[in-house]
Amino acid sequence: AQSVTQPDIHITVSEGASLELRCNYSYGATPYLFWYVQSPGQGLQLLLKYFSGDTLVQGIKGFEAEFKRSQSSFNLRKPSVHWSDAAEYFCAVVDGGSNYKLTFGKGTLLTVNP
Amino acid sequence: NAGVMQNPRHLVRRRGQEARLRCSPMKGHSHVYWYRQLPEEGLKFMVYLQKENIIDESGMPKERFSAEFPKEGPSILRIQQVVRGDSAAYFCASSSTSGGAWEQYFGPGTRLTVT
Question: What confidence score (pLDDT) does residue B102 get?
Answer without folding.
Answer: 78
